[in-house]
Specification:
The complex is a heterodimer of chains A (208) and B (251).
Chain A: E1 2-6, H1 14-24, E2 29-33, H2 36-41, E3 44-47, H3 53-61, H4 66-76, E4 81-84, H5 86-89, E5 94-95, E6 101-102, E7 109-113, E8 125-133, E9 148-153, E10 155-159, E11 165-171, E12 173-181, E13 184-187, H6 195-206
Parallel strand pairs in A: 1-2, 1-3, 3-4, 4-13, 5-7
Antiparallel strand pairs in A: 5-6, 7-10, 8-9, 8-11, 11-12, 12-13
Chain B: E1 5-13, E2 16-18, H1 32-41, E3 47-51, H2 61-70, E4 77-80, H3 86-95, E5 99-102, H4 104-108, H5 111-120, E6 125-134, E7 137-142, E8 147-152, H6 153-163, E9 167-172, H7 184-193, E10 198-201, H8 207-215, E11 221-224, H9 226-229, H10 235-244
Parallel strand pairs in B: 1-3, 1-11, 3-4, 4-5, 5-6, 6-9, 9-10, 10-11
Antiparallel strand pairs in B: 1-2, 6-7, 7-8
Helix pairs in contact in B: 1-2, 2-3
Classes of the chains: A alpha/beta (208), B alpha/beta (251).
Chain lengths: 208, 251
């Protein structure tokens, strides 16, 4: 099996690479590339994302044909795809970080700044927070409810259709922190930085 | 609920740990990778390396350390010390650091913070403020605490937030190495002034100080070096103590 981590200048992806390689060992081949042919041929795709919504979308656009390839994989050939952090946020129709920016539109909804209740909550939301698993799925296999995951973000994804939400976390309000729609998975938290529980989630994704 | 973080910090010089933990089962007490792994296995919420390598020709040693550590520790790794340019940041992140901590360069040129937070995202830019009390105010020091800039630490903290820092690592130079506890007044004032998380540093001698840093200083995270280095307390003990004092921690 080939799992491809999409390299599109989305900031620092070395931790994502290290964690997937740690989990995959010799069983699964982990590719890190922006080569469309390799991405197309892979069995599973990981879309990391750091920095702003706009900078990540710009990053995708900077590689000719990448968005078309991702659309094809996610929507037509329906390969399992995992978006992490801004990688998840880009599933939305629209993001409001820096400037209004069009997203991939795979899961209807918007990405807006977390309401910090007039400074009561510090932003970014940085650190370990518990996740409330609202829908058990293969992705959360053997992950206990209220497990701790590592977060770092100031913006949140609000999907229109609440049935795609698989986990939330409490910070200022209930923040959507994991989604699933058909073959498309996403986490707002960083499984690659979430110690053993995070590695287990990566393992679950590889085994979907 | 978001948990308070405990961050053990390791001083690294020429690729070797200075003041390491003396565990009997440790193969190599000077190996930063092995020490970091002990901390992360013990429940450290993040790991911090402070590179204190003095000579330029040995500066590259930290990159190897970061590379090896990031393959073994799957919690966030922050690296500070001698980070001056976008190029330095880029190299550290590519080696597997998750955040970089910037001190002197941030004071000399705030544009480094503006540019780097734009390029890499605020989430990986930590500004380290070394502050020392002078009368009623605190002044910012640079170059590992050797140069007094005379800059007001509170104003500087605000400026760094506006420039794009994701977190502030606030060290009281009056308290650093004294083991008498954090400068709570400084932590509380900076934390009240900015809306980004602050990490308290400098002066921890016992576990009660960690509690004070969070409860009284309003810090989101507490950093400590020597109480963990010398095996006085383990990270696990520290977390259990915080938990017993009603502070939410990841256990």
């Amino acid at each position: 099996m080939n799992v491809t981590i999409v390299d599109y200048n989305s900031g620092n992806i070395s931790s994502v690479i290290n964690s997937f390689k740690e989990v995959a060992k010799d069983k699964v081949n982990i590719e890190v590339t922006s080569d469309l042919a390799i991405i197309k041929a892979s069995d599973k795709v990981v879309l990391p994302g750091q920095g702003s919504f706009k900078s990540c979308i710009d990053g995708l656009n900077s590689i000719n044909g990448l968005i078309d390839t991702l659309n094809e994989l996610a929507l037509e050939s329906k390969k399992p795809l995992l978006g992490i952090c801004v990688g998840l946020q880009m599933f939305a129709d629209i993001g409001y970080e820096e400037i209004e920016t069009k997203g991939l539109g795979w899961i209807s909804g918007k990405v807006s700044k977390i309401d910090n209740q007039g400074g009561k909550f510090k932003l970014p939301h940085i650190g370990w927070n518990e996740i409330n698993i609202v829908k058990d799925n293969k992705f959360f296999k053997d992950i206990m409810n209220k497990s701790h995951m590592y977060f770092v973000h100031s913006y949140e994804f609000t999907p229109d259709d609440k049935s795609v939400i698989t986990a939330t976390t409490d910070y200022s309000s209930k923040i959507v922190c994991a989604v699933e729609k058909d073959n498309i998975f996403g986490t707002q938290f960083h499984p690659e930085k979430s110690d053993k529980t995070g590695l287990k989630i990566i393992d679950n994704f590889i085994n979907i | 609920m978001l948990k308070s973080r405990i961050i053990p910090c390791l001083d690294v010089k020429n690729g070797r740990v200075v003041k390491g933990i003396n565990f009997v089962d440790l193969q190599d007490a000077g190996d930063p990778v092995e020490q970091a792994k002990i901390y992360s296995d013990g429940g450290a919420d993040e790991i911090c390396f402070l590179d204190i390598t003095a000579s330029n020709e040995n500066r590259d040693t930290i990159y190897e350390v970061v590379k090896d550590t990031s393959k073994k520790c799957f919690v966030p790794l922050t690296v500070g010390g001698g980070v001056r340019s976008i190029d330095d940041i880029s190299k550290l992140l590519n080696c597997g650091a998750d955040k970089v901590s910037i001190n002197t360069a941030a004071v000399q040129n705030a544009d480094v913070i503006v540019q780097s937070s734009k390029k890499f995202g605020s989430q990986c830019i930590v500004v380290a403020i070394d502050a020392k009390k002078n009368g009623e105010k605190w002044e910012v020091f640079t170059h590992g605490g050797r140069n007094n800039t005379g800059i007001d630490a509170l104003e500087f903290a605000k400026k760094m937030e506006e420039s794009g820092a994701g977190e502030l690592l606030v060290t009281s130079m009056d308290r650093d190495g004294t083991q008498v506890g954090y400068d709570i007044d400084l932590m509380y004032k900076i934390s009240s002034m900015v809306n980004i998380p602050i990490i308290a540093s400098g002066g921890v001698g016992d576990l009660g100080h960690l509690v004070d840093g969070i409860k009284l200083g309003n810090a989101s995270a507490v950093l400590a070096a020597s109480i963990f280095h010398y095996g006085k307390y383990s990270v696990k003990e520290a977390k259990e103590y915080l938990d017993s004092k009603g502070i939410p921690v990841r256990i």
